[in-house]
Amino acid sequence: MNPLRSHKSYLAFVGHRLSGVALALFLPLHFLLLGTAINDADALQRALAFTDHPLVKVAEWGLVVLLTVHLLFGLRILALEMTSWPSRYDNRTSWVIPALVISLLAGVIFWLQS
Amino acid sequence: MTNKISVSIWRGKSDGEYQTYEVELRENQTVLDIVTEVQRQHEPSLAYRFACRVGVCGSCAMTVNGVPRWTCRTHVNQVTKNNSLTIGPLRNLPVIKDLVVDMKPFFKKWQTAGASFTGGKTRHDPVATISSESPGRKAADAGIECINCAVCYSACDVVGWDDSYAGPAALNRIWTLVNDERQVNKRAVLDAAFADGGCGSCHSQGNCTRHCPVELSPSESIAALKRSAFMGLPKTGAVESNKIDTGADRES
Predict the structure, then answer these.
(1) Residues in chain A within 8 Å Cβ distance of B217
(2) Do A82 and B227 touch (CB under 8 A)?
(3) Superfamily for B4-101?
(4) Complex ipTM, two decimals?
């Protein structure tokens, strides 16, 4: 494993960017689906029925986790760039693992409620 | 029985390859010692660069087991894995030969980014006395010890991905300039830091700070530059411009 790419700060970078790309791909499809509600009720019903498919449920769970990852890693970036650092070396890597745990918990809560 | 270590060293230009040598392990041996031994005992044509050998000049920086380091300040026993060592040239810079890279792009970007001091006084003006307690002096102090070894530049992925990116060292220098009370037209210096390839290109991966041999934090300097987009120029404190430092008040 490349030692320049196997540390928490790099993990946060990769997590934030990849979750951002995944959400950017998802949102147009999401709006497309919502758009069918205006013009074609049958198409909307078919699309909603499709979302009952187990694989779609898993994908939804993934989206909730990715959304939370993107939110929390984004907050870390904002903290780095908008506030003074506690010390010169503290780029808030201590936030990374808790952010991932919270994201998985958000996924669990979503799973239990759906 | 003598202990030996297997050392893979990059030979050739960018299209070269690693060659392996068996080198005797000694006490208190640095990676630079290993490279020197390979050149003197095994491969007289091996090209590498060093000068001071005590961590002052920064010219012996190489990639050791995938990480950029000053080889003179790296003990072999700190970095050896499975009794082997891989030594290559710095990343993100053109290879001239073997372990020697061309530093020109690094310095060129430093200049292009505007990371050079411009004062507004002549030698006939009084020396500016800067309080060591002023916020500007403290902020500049935190980043001023850079010796341009390019370890941060080599450690940074963004430098490798984006040709226009000035790199951590130049941006760290710009942060010290906007905190330097003697620097003229700081607004222009700050504006230059936000040009294409400036601080906005940093992805906060933090490799520069993790590997800086003099423990600077370019990551923090770059974050502070970004913050200036919202907060404006940092407060630096007043210059006592008429006070001349004659040395009379120094302790003997």
Answers:
(1) 85, 88-89
(2) yes
(3) Beta-grasp domain (3.10.20.30)
(4) 0.87
